Amino acid sequence: MSQSEAEQKNDSLENLTGDLKEFYDFHGVQLFGWGFPGKKQLLESLHNKLKQQKFDAGEFFQILDNGEEEQYQVKALKDQKQYENVFLIDHAITFRYEELRPALEKNEVLLGRLQNMVKYWNQKLKIPGVSPEDKTFKECVEYDFQDIEDPNSKKIPLNCQALSLYGNNIQDIELVKQQLAKLPDLKVLWLNDNPIAENPELLKLVEGEYPNIEILNSKYTKNAGVYALKFTTFGASKLDLVQTIEPQQVKFLDVSDRDILKREDQTIFSEFPNLVEMNIKETEIKELSDINRFFEILKNCKKIEYINVDTEVELMMFELEKQGKLREICPSLKYVNGHDLKLQLKPHINEEIIRDVMTNIWKIVGCYRLASSDQYDESGIWYVNDEFGSSIQHSDTANLQCIPFLFAPNNKLDEKAISYSICWPIKDIKENDFITRDYLMGITELQQRSSKLITWFDLPTKFFEDEYQKENNKRLKQKEIGDQIIKEFNDQPQKLEQLDKQFKVISDLPVVIDNVKTKNFEFVDDLKKSDIIWLSTPLQDTFDLITKDQKVNQFPLEACITMKHELNNTVIQNIGKVNWLQTTYNLQTQLATFIGDYLHRKDNHLNNIWIIKPPNMARSMDMVVTDNLQTIIRLMETGPKLIQKYIERPLTIKGKKLDFRYIIVLKSLKPLDVYLYKKFWVRTSNNTFTNDYRTREVYDTHFTVMNYGKKLEQIHDNEFLEIFEKEYGDQIKWDTIDQRIQNMVKELFIAVQKGYPKMQDDRCVSIYGLDVMIDLNDFQPKMLEVTFSPDCNRACKYTPSFFEDIFALLFLNKSPQETNHIRL
Q: Which residues form the Tubulin--tyrosine ligase-like protein 12 SET-like domain (predicted)?
């Protein structure tokens, strides 16, 4: 054996003994699942450092605060060989998703620490070698940072509307005057960072002699009008929109940091009659006249619901709301800085910092899940590495690998287990080299690597916009086909003779056995002797065991509606975009398309709150409500995810969000013979509903499934109908909504029939749970999900004849009127 072979054998993991072997036996799967090198020396080093709690990265690396490039960096202090050493990284915080805000509100030291760690992440990183997108805009002329002294030295088009001479050496007001006289269409002028910008005569000149100019040096002039407000909202990149959009079409205005309160007359805002949202941050309010003008703005915004202001202004508005005076000034206003006025919940003293940390922390977090032999964690545990770990920048060709590691000192998962990250060189590193790691380690283009990089990097957006437009056009085109299919649909179910015979039934559901007591049904234990098979689990590949004379409570291929992602596919692919299904994307395959939709909504100031759902978990497990793009992308690390547009204005009763459980009864797919059970069940949230972003992590505000270990307010359907009539009867009748729900279910099964003709099987019948919410904007029912073998215990508790009704309809051919059903 050669010397090198002997060294390799000595450094292998064979023949480990003692504490090291016990450590490896318990932790080895975790380590090497993450790609830890199979080297004894490195394993020994890790084991020793863990036992000694030795954090020695500072001896080998230095953190640099690079203010010029606006990022932290880590530099090597000495040469290091590949796999030569391993380093422990402490975790500044570990948390489950819903635990972050409470932790930041309670721990000011932690908040300050995290604020410092994310201070450069308000801006995204530039991608090396990728040119920025072209920012040259029609009718907007730029001559920035060219050391210009005389603006007349440049040939500026006479129809120029926006002129930027930022960062030059212009100081002669007469030269400026000469240039402005040539530009009758000019409305926006930037002379920022020029000597003349400090000359008070410049503003007097512009406001007195050139009233066409509405914005000077990024601030409104006294001549600012509708154009100026549209320009600061949509920007130079959308100059065509600024020129063409009518004020009544505008729902959002951005007048932040523009000295809007220096205008004496604020009636300009009445020109925007449909304004719903406005940003008026970075606006000084020092004098009583400023306060009066601010409230004059609000009075002229008759439909304003959302406003963003500076913290001191919010506190003033908060006090007025407590006194009941704010409603007198602006009765339509609902949210200030995303805070729901009706909650009267004073903003936390550090709210702006908390919000900034919660927005940007997703660029530096990592994630792991706990698993034991008998249980798998339903949601991920997130962590933030300490200052050293969080300062390591990204590279596709990293020289360091960094992984999470759960150390169990007793070699078992107990209360002494503690999480770290560990890192080691995967390449030779020279002194003064910058240290990098791959933020998307192990993620390839098959897992949409490039799209996920938008979390950290300023990616060109055209690709995402094109993907969104392509998908949206496809859905709209299929909708045209679907509308025709629905219009022409004329299936007539077979007329079946009522039966009065004995059926033998086998079932594994006590709720069925205990509640079907009529003489026509006898329960047996032998599947071969049964006429009806009613099971709680899918048969899958064992349908062949069912004879042609038996009936079974499931259809082949029914996963096309009972799996969340397949439900969306079934509808979109067969009847296109429908108004009863919220926009949905499978993030495992449609991340780029979703990002395009998100950016489209952001650019157009549309509501951008989404709900992220795992496709295969019930009871709202691992579901998150957020409007943060990087949060959404990082949540994909906890498992497969669907994302669906959140219903931001759901129907509420007594102020609480609610959904409805219906039971669908499918007797035949072709010809279609489908029913709804007449009674429905109402589920409400425990807390008053609000879209205040501070409640997004509060389960009892946004979710209604409380059956498991949570208190549940029971509202029966007849009680609900009385309350609904009192609260909404002057707007719409429940019968109208009920008919929309019936149409929705029928359209769903028309889509199933078109897309899955092989699902029809004469041996099969089924019931499905249907969860529905109502969008308050237009009282449109929205289908949330369809479930196989729904939990019917509550149905039987309040309607003891429930299963007897269903069995009579399905197997005795009794009429829907006799069995409390509606045929669709």
A: 350-457
Supply the DSSP symbol for 367: E
CA gap 102, 570 in Å, rounded: 40
Shortest CA distance to 612 belongs to which of 648, 579, 636? 636
Q: What percent helix, strand, coil does the chain show, rounded to 5?
A: 40, 20, 40
Displacement of CA 365 from its chain's centroid (Å): 17
Letter for the amino acid at 807?
F
User: How many DSSP H helices and E strands does the chain contain?
Assistant: 26, 35
Domain total in the chain: 4
d(CA 557, CA 662): 21
Give the per-residue pLDDT at 627: 97
Domain final residue pick, 455, 481, 514: 455
CATH number of domain containing 418: 2.170.270.10
pLDDT at 128 over 80: no
Query: Nearest CA to 660 among 565, 566, 742?
Result: 742
Four-CA torsion 272, 277, 281, 287, nearest 10 degrees: 60
**Same domain membership, residue 412 and residue 346:** no
In angstroms, the CA 158 to CA 147 distance is 22
Whole domain around residue 10: which residue ranges? Answer: 3-121+364-455
Query: In this predicted model, what pLDDT tens digit does every residue of 447-484 receive, in sequence order?
Result: 999 999 999 999 999 999 999 999 999 999 999 999 99
Dihedral of CA 715/720/723/724: which sign? positive
Looking at the structure, tell me whether residues 351 and 393 fall in a common domain.
Answer: no
Amino acid at 41: Q
Q: Is residue 571 part of a domain?
A: no
**Which residue bears the tokens 């390449």?**
427
